[in-house]
Amino acid sequence: ELRDTAPDDVIVLWPAGAPGGERVTVTEELIERPNDLGLRDRIVRGVRTPTLSVFRPHRGNGSAVLIVPGGGYRHVVVDKEGFEAARWFAARGIAAYVLRYRLPGDGWSAGPDVALQDAQRAMRVIREHVGVDAGRVALLGFSAGGHVSAMLATRFDAPLAPDGDSRTAQPNVTCLMYSVITMGADAHAGSRGFLLGANPSSEAIARYSMEQHARADM
Questions:
Q1: pTM, to two decimals
Q2: What distance separates the 2 farthest-apart alpha carbons in the chain?
């Protein structure tokens, strides 16, 4: 059940093209990295087409999970923190959706909010899927994907939908795995650099230090 199977489906998040890409010139690239354990380990750089990779359970129980892999905001991990976790959940009756999100250094007009824009869209798409109970959609983020997830958990209602979509993007449960959280003195330097640049302002550091933004309705 946990063998190296491909996704059952791939959903393009923005069928008409991802918004705000007028200044984007990167080329999307899938890279296979060597692995001492013989496990598949791929990353994607220059994401141009954000997607959800779908792993369907044999016998679904109505619940679903949005999985947001890491990659330090430099790339997006595919297998580790992504497809491997999705297969585990699908084997236990939970529909799993792995997000391939856009990266803040690639010139998108949403800037540091571009991955959050994709995460909001992903949560809305999942809730409309056949067999998914809209009240049982969890969120699981790893490393920098944990920072994306923390943003979604605290800013699910930020007005980032270019089409004005007002459906809720709030996760019912959020789990942050060894996540990037602060952008302050103890920040993961690589993630902060790729998210906010080399010399972020104190305002930017505060805005994207997610430990400062927990809210009562999370």
A1: 0.96
A2: 50
Residue 41, amino acid? D
Tell me the sheet residues that pair with 18.
Answer: none
The three-class DSSP label of residue 53 is strand
The C-alpha atoms of residue 90 and residue 63 are separated, in whole angstroms, by: 10
pLDDT tens, the chain, 218 aa long: 467 889 999 999 999 999 999 999 999 999 999 988 888 999 999 999 999 999 999 999 999 999 999 999 999 999 999 999 999 999 999 999 999 999 999 999 999 999 999 999 999 999 999 899 999 999 999 999 999 999 999 999 999 999 889 899 999 999 999 999 999 999 999 999 999 999 999 999 999 999 999 999 98
Specify whether the CB–CB gap between 218 and 154 falls below 8 A. Answer: yes
DSSP state string for 73-95: TTSEESIIIIIHHHHHHHTTT-E
Cα separation, 83 vs 5, in Å, equals: 9
